[in-house]
Amino acid sequence: MAKDYKATVFLPQTDFPMRAGLPAMEPKLLARWAENDLFARLRQTAAGREKFILHDGPPYANGNLHIGHALNKILKDVINRSQQMLGRDANYVPGWDCHGLPIEWKIEEKYRAAGRDKDAVPIDEFRRECREFADHWIGVQKAEFRRLGVEGDWDRPYTTMAYPAEAQIVREIGRFLMNGGLFRGSKPVMWSVVEKTALAEAEVEYHDHTSNTVYLRFPVATASRPELDGVSMVIWTTTPWTMPGNRAIAYGADIPYVVVEVTEAAEGSLARVGERMLLAEALVPAVAAATGIAGHRVAASLSGVDLAGTVCRHPLAGHPGADGGYDFPVALLAGDFVTTDQGTGLVHMAPGHGADDYELALAHGITAPQTVSEDGSYFPHVPLFAGRRVLTPYGKKGDADEAVIAVMTEVGALLGRGTLLHSYPHSWRSKAPLIFRNTPQWFISMTTNGLRDTALAAIDDTRFVPPQGQNRLRSMIETRPDWCISRQRAWGVPIAIFVEKKTGELLRDQDVVDRIAAAFESEGADAWYTSPPERFLGPGRDPADYEQVKDVVDVWFDSGSTHSFVLEQRPELAWPASLYLEGSDQHRGWFHSSLLESCGTRGRAPYDAVLTHGFVMDEQGRKMSKSLGNVTAPQTVIDEYGADILRLWVVSADYSEDLRIGKEILKHQSEMYRRLRNTLRYLLGALDGFDPAEKVAAADMPELERWVLHRLAETDRTVRQACADFEFHAIFTALHNFCAVDLSAFYFDIRKDALYCDAPDALRRRACRTVMDQIFDCLTAWLAPILCFTAEEAWLARHGDAPETSVHLRLFPDIPASWLDEALAAKWQTVREVRRVVTGALELERAQRRIGASLQASPVVAVTPAQAAAFAGLSLAEIAITSSAALTVVEGEALENAFRLDDVPGVAVVPRLADGQKCQRCWRILPEVGQVARHEDLCVRCAEAVPGLTSEAA
Questions:
Q1: Could you report the per-residue pLDDT of 909-950, keeping only the tens digit for each?
Q2: Labelling 601: which of 42, 191, 407, 751 has CA 20 to 30 A away?
Q3: Which domain of life is it from (predicted)?
């Protein structure tokens, strides 16, 4: 009877399951980390190390997390965990943005549904409901963030609505008050008629919108040159409703202009034969086509500079119903923003309704009029149009455009009209169109105290990842107007200052600022609304002499101030932050406001580095929307796949670009995850019963093991550099290739025979297990920041579940420099290339059913002398996983009928069947089988191994 040697063969054993079951396993690990207070242990083990502080950009507390939140927080967590394992103290304090319109809007929606008037609700009651709403969603989001595996100080997060935070925000406003940077001005700002407040650029999104367009005549009143007598300046605008606010016309100093005399007008055209008008020369054909000018002649040619000094009349000047309201001069002014891309080359200037208009008018001493009220209607003092609406309270188009066009037609000013579909600003909450509206607001000056220059210098001193973020932020700071920080809302930190009614001067008194901050510290910002003003003004001042400002500060000022009440006031953190990390839209948002706030009060940026990531699209690269049905919710992914799959998705792509996600992509991520998990599982099984006494010194190991150590050293270098560069897709690529290509498809494949069949004390087997021990230690550490659950599961499977045991309490292993061996790596590159040709030849034999397993083969392999030298001291049969192999040096193409690969020149393989009998233990086919006394069915190696194994069976 043949002997059964199965019990003498070492087969990997582990309880680490092949199927991860992440949705069920991950919550158990979360509970374990909470029970053992992993965060506190991390702080204890990192005490005294260099700090790495990633300051959290606060999300709004107003709904469940979306996939963009998951990308953002996972990326932050991967960075924090990797920096911690690099030997730093990466203390992470999460935070929330709690004030502002997103939350206030939700409460107003509830009121509207109940038929309540928000303005009739006492402000302290309204603010209390906003606070409760935010507090609820903080709890929901906190649980969802933790489910993603994000580690942080969740028991002590920061919120902008905490009383100490509100107190510090008002102190920061006080800094600008005291240094002269804060002022009240009347400027055009983006205004939401629906929400009745100014909006910051970061709160604006752009959608297609159809606007009315008009060509209008402005008759010349004072000509700078004789050619302009009796001429009309023709402007084109997409906002006819701004015409009551017109105060000037802009031209381009370097643009060629012509005086055109109409010689023929098409039927229905409003052009008049014989009239003369000024247009940019390049735009005459387009204007003629749009206005029905069928024929014309050029009466004069001028350059832009020739227009200086020309003054026009407003088209409505002298209108009997206007009572002289438009009888003011309309000067022509040079503007460097005028182009010939569209229009007429002349731009009508309404300084109350545009940034360029305002700045040009201001430079020439022209006051910006106030024409449109907060509800989108013209003020009562606007001649001819009082009460007409630009937009309705619901954001729909009002009657102002048509009213203006009708009067312009009546007075003969209209030359042509049309419509234009173009990108137009909308509120990102109400989705309604916005208007530029001149209104009194509070601003922080970009020039007072040199804020712009300080911010630009700070940008130059900041590291940007990717680098192009620097130019993007710089260009915004270079051109941005003064910072409008006021909002006409109720839920927020008030701009808690007083203005002297008699002089209009701001009350600059540090004692007043301190009293306000002290009240906010103990009672919150509600104190501003519930306390008498004398509480803050102090003795000696009559409250009747002062205006108490009730506007709230823009939430971007709130979040831009977080560095002052988080980084500066928590001793376990540090100022400035090592890193700010958010989506690329935050160049105009949090990165921007934080920079200005800190530069204006501390003279530098609150961060040393800024990292930006892209947005999440669906698998086709489309923006996600409920209407398209292409939304991927993180909660759904976690329930089906587990959080580690989401984490793997984050690091597997280049996050500096937009990322894509969907069912097929997630399936692909699951496959890649399975390869990584199977590697860990195989290592755990192969290390079953491993005793440190087995270890072999690197110098005593076979070449193959020393090559693996070299690859570990190379990978360690890649991991550390990628962590420093925040390029985690490079880590993923390196680890995935190491596991799939170097280990599973090569090293494990070759060493299975030695691992399973060598004697336990054999050097080759001991060296293999020693290397596997090192691989496991390295892989679990390198994967821990990415697959935080799986790495922990694998670590506990090997080291037990004592409370003090966690892979996350480790550092990345220190790899001896001696493991790097470039010469050995080059040699084994050649070995692997030769092996690839042999494997290809055997695969073809297997496909043709001439062999089953590779151990049935004994190939003849022809190589070049250099390739043969690489195999000195090595067994080709062992490396190719054949029973035997013959390596021969053959020049040129002498070996006939051989298998070759074009990309591996010099190698030719002739597959042959192995001679001999099959060893019943290792399954190699060798002539020696049958020749070993007492073990006729074994090869020599197995015969020597079996007596030392007590489990030998008959």
A1: 999 999 999 999 999 999 999 998 888 899 999 999 998 764
A2: 191
A3: Bacteria
